[in-house]
């Protein structure tokens, strides 16, 4: 039965990859446009307006986080529309396979698509800005681990929102009441140590936000040094939040899509 589940998962993933291949050039062009915008703003315009040179790296890394967030929200919107209008998901749930593998195919496709968008920025953008980014002690392997763990978290986290909340509540409230506070107080626009130096109480509260560990962990792995939260601690925190969210997602799936 387990091998059957895996076979169905790879069959679903194969289908999604074939569909994604049709949009490959479009996705790469989107990535190139984003690369141009980000390189221009973080490497040239913001420093010209007074941003310190040592902030170019953290701001550049933030774009990975922003893309995770943007594509994760798009995944959630697509999923909640499938639930509302009885779309493809309901057909997949009739297959003789554990529901975990159905949702795993959605998450894996999301991770692949986000990586395609990020590739031009990571390769071409880094090549252009390599002399502007202040690298201290990069940890490439740790960066890759945090990158993958962050993508996995966003996929599970956004799917949880789309399954847990009703269609109308999601559209009316999820951004203002859930995502916006997490985004704004997740070390997105600043370094956590800077927040701690100004308001320690708020900084400690931010440690309850998984997005803080994603931002700080990506920065630590990409740049290194002691200005960020230790990357290994961030990785442990991200994995812990992911496992917790997976539990709640599984519970919501049973209540919403399998009430029997």
Structure description:
With 260 residues, this protein is mostly helical. It is 80% helix and 0% strand. The chain contains 11 helices and no strands. It has helices at 2-22, 24-48, 56-84, 88-92, 99-129, 140-164, 167-184, 192-198, 200-206, 210-222, 231-256. The two termini are 22 Å apart. The model has no long low-confidence stretch (mean pLDDT 87).
List keywords for this structure.
mainly alpha
Number of helical segments with 4 or more residues = 11
Q: How far from one another are the termini?
A: 22 Å
Kindly name the structural category.
mainly alpha
Low-confidence segments, given as residue ranges, are none
DSSP, total strands: 0
Helix residue percentage? over 70%
Helices and strands in order, then pairings?
Layout (H helix, E strand, L loop, with lengths): L1 H21 L1 H25 L7 H29 L3 H5 L6 H31 L10 H25 L2 H18 L7 H7 L1 H7 L3 H13 L8 H26 L4
Helix pairs in contact: 1-5, 2-3, 2-5, 3-5, 3-6, 3-10, 5-6, 6-10, 6-11, 8-9, 10-11
Compact summary:
With 260 residues, this protein is an all-alpha fold. The chain contains eleven helices and no strands.
């Amino acid at each position: 039965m387990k091998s059957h589940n895996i076979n169905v998962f790879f069959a679903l993933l194969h289908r999604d990859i074939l569909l994604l291949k049709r949009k490959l050039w479009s996705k790469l062009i989107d990535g190139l446009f984003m690369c141009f915008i980000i390189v221009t703003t973080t490497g040239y315009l913001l420093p010209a307006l007074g941003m310190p040179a040592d902030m170019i790296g953290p701001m550049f890394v933030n774009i990975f986080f922003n893309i995770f967030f943007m594509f994760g929200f798009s995944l959630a919107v697509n999923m909640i529309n499938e639930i509302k209008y009885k779309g493809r998901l309901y057909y997949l749930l009739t297959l003789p396979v554990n529901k975990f593998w159905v949702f795993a195919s959605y998450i894996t496709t999301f991770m692949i698509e986000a990586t395609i968008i990020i590739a031009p920025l990571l390769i071409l953008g880094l090549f252009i800005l390599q002399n502007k980014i202040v690298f201290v002690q990069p940890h490439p392997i740790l960066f890759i681990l945090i990158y993958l763990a962050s993508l996995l978290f966003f996929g599970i986290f956004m799917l949880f929102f789309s399954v847990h909340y009703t269609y109308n509540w999601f559209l009316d409230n999820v951004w203002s009441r859930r995502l916006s506070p997490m985004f704004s107080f997740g070390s997105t626009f600043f370094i956590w140590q800077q927040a701690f130096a100004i308001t320690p109480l708020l900084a400690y509260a931010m440690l309850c936000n998984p997005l803080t560990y994603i931002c700080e962990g990506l920065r630590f792995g990409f740049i290194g040094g002691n200005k960020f939260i230790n990357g290994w601690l961030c990785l442990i925190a991200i994995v812990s939040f992911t496992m917790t969210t997976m539990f709640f997602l599984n519970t919501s799936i049973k209540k919403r899509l399998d009430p029997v």
